[in-house]
Amino acid sequence: MRLFTCQKCGQMLHFENSHCLRCNTRLGFLPNLMLLSAIDTMADGTVTALGNPGTAMIPCGNADAAGCNWLVPAGSGRAFCDACRLNHTIPDLDIADNAEKWRLIEAAKRRLVYALMRLNLPLCTRQSEGDRGLAFDFLADAPNERVMTGHDDGLITINIAEADSAERERRRLQMNESYRTLLGHLRHEVGHYYWNVLVQEGGRIDAARDVFGDERADYAEALERHYEVGPPSNWQHGYVSAYATMHPWEDFAETWTHYLHMVDTLDTAASFGMVVDPTVTSNPKVSTNVPFDPYDSPSFKALVEAWLPLTVALNSLNRSMGHSDLYPFALSTPAISKLSFIHDLVRGAV
Prior knowledge:
The chain has helices at 63-66, 98-118, 126-129, 165-174, 182-200, 205-212, 219-229, 248-271, 300-320, 333-349; strands at 4-5, 12-13, 27-30, 35-41, 47-49, 56-59, 71-73, 87-89, 135-139, 150-152, 155-159, 275-276, 288-289. It is an alpha+beta fold.
């Protein structure tokens, strides 16, 4: 994720900021420019972004309710921004705690949509493409009905209980997972959507089967077997996660998730000018910087050669604070080959 700068005072800004922490100027994100900008409010209620002067904008209709800082072109007839237009169902905000959970989910979803836009991936709404478009249901459990997080032909459902950090940690331990976050859920489920768009509709089925296996294997049987027997003992040799062993669809979605982890984290490292150069060794394989745009790198080799040393450094920093590893995964050669497939798939879709 890029860093930004307040056009009024020069303060460094983060993607989620809605006000400058130095001069308190209101901020708005311009999706067409991928720019977080200081904004001025006009007498007619529209706003002008200092990063794009002369263009009238309005705040997203979810600015107050969900803390959305994205802007919408004035006169477009749209009330919601490019990220919020993807919402199909939101939680009942009259129920205690639902509003805060929804705000947390929306913050993660904006980061997801930002990444999809930076990668120039097709991003169709159901307003424009009908059932072929991407949409989100953010739902809460009912007294006799549990909401299952998942994907169904472009409709992604997220149980808002995942926004409760204590509940999410309980589920992580119950599922014996090393990693579980809201952003991770969103990245995983959108991976299923892009299987449909880039692999199935994109004519890459045979190539994907060569890498991930035959997705025609019975999914229900695979799911039952996974939760009854568990992953193979040597799963680390070929997969990015234990869950990826369950079915080729899940292998693709998990690998897709890790690819988005990689490019977004590398982009943040590049924005900070981070250099990894351990003082205890001169081995170049454990040193790195990121002198390129990770979202626009034609070379997967450059991405992975920067990623592996960076994760070692980040994990070490986390341990210094008493936390578990930031990236608790070890990428085998077959897993890296799968990530390379995702990279080529994404680049081919641009």
